[in-house]
């Protein structure tokens, strides 16, 4: 008596199974998963994950925060009381961003490379008024 190996599903069977899974997934589920992924990635880019402090990247952290802030209003009703935990996580990321930006951490995304070395030099003039992200309400700044 020989044992039969289980047969591999056909392409049509795989497609039908995939379509059945898609029917069960809600857009809110994908948005929530994306928000959680952005928070986790933001934590890594904030350099707060033990052992990954060298991964700090303020530009990527800022983009993760902005992504969460854009998506969160779409799913807050579905999250219910859990929305508070996500808002708290974003607040912590925003504090880390303010800390990194205050240190003048070099960015890997080009553009502003932080303050020049040498503390005796005169500080560069600051632009008057809020920048475009801050004035649009998309950028949270401590104390404002």
Give an overview in words.
This protein is mainly α and 144 residues long. It has a domain at 21-104. 56% of the residues lie in helices and 0% in strands. The protein has helices at 11-24, 27-45, 58-79, 83-103, 132-135. The longest helix has 22 residues, at 58-79. The protein starts with 10 loop residues before the first helix and ends in a 9-residue tail after the last helix. Mean pLDDT is 79; it is low at 107-127.
What is the topological layout?
Elements: H1 11-24, H2 27-45, H3 58-79, H4 83-103, H5 132-135
Low-pLDDT sequence parts: 107-127
User: Taking all residues together, what is the mean pLDDT?
Assistant: 79
Strand content: under 5%
DSSP E strands, number: 0
């Amino acid at each position: 008596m020989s044992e039969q190996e289980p047969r591999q599903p056909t392409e049509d069977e795989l497609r039908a199974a995939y379509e059945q899974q898609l029917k069960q997934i809600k857009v809110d589920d994908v948005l929530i998963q994306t928000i959680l992924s952005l928070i986790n990635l933001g934590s890594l880019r904030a350099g707060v994950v033990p052992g990954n402090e060298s991964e700090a990247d303020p530009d990527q952290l800022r983009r993760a925060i902005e992504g969460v802030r854009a998506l969160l209003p779409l799913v807050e009703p579905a999250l219910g009381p859990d929305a508070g935990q996500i808002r708290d996580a974003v607040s912590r990321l925003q504090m880390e961003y303010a800390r990194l930006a205050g240190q003048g951490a070099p960015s890997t995304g080009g553009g502003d490379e932080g303050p020049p070395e040498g503390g005796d030099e005169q500080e560069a003039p600051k632009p008057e008024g809020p920048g475009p992200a801050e004035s649009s309400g998309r950028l949270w700044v401590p104390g404002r």
